[in-house]
Design goal:
Layout lengths: L14 H10 L4 H21 L8 H10 L9 H13 L12 H16 L4
Helix pairs in contact: 1-2, 1-4, 3-4
Length: 121
């Protein structure tokens, strides 16, 4: 495991699963390492703030990511979207529409259209 894994932090139990999640989606090892560095950074921030993982929402994770100082300025929140998606899939965070898969988003839009335009569903 890369040294960027948080070892005794709120996200420690999720580091291995998150890495596997990224690899299954075709991420290269170097990119997985960068994502794990972001995970470690966010985890340190949670510890410093005294925030428990169970109290977070996807929006809170993305807000923390957006405000976190990072050498990847301008692209800060993007790596955290995958983290938010993984935490929802793993059950650590409640899912929101912000992390819906494209197919789920399309189906939700179609369902709304059926309901409003066609008076169906």
């Amino acid at each position: 495991m890369p040294s960027s894994h948080p070892s005794t932090s709120p996200f420690a139990v999720h580091a291995t699963g998150f890495a596997r999640f990224l690899v299954e989606r075709g991420y290269r090892p170097s990119t997985v390492s960068v994502h794990l560095q972001h995970l470690a950074q966010l985890s340190r921030r949670l510890e410093a703030d005294g925030t428990a993982l169970g109290t977070l929402t996807v929006e809170a994770v993305e807000a923390m990511a957006a405000s976190a100082p990072s050498p990847w300025t301008g692209r800060r929140a993007r790596p955290f979207r995958r983290l938010g998606e993984y935490l929802c899939v793993s059950g650590a965070l409640a899912p929101t529409e912000a992390v819906m898969a494209p197919l789920d988003e399309l189906l939700a839009h179609y369902r709304r259209w059926l309901r409003t335009e066609r008076s169906l569903v």
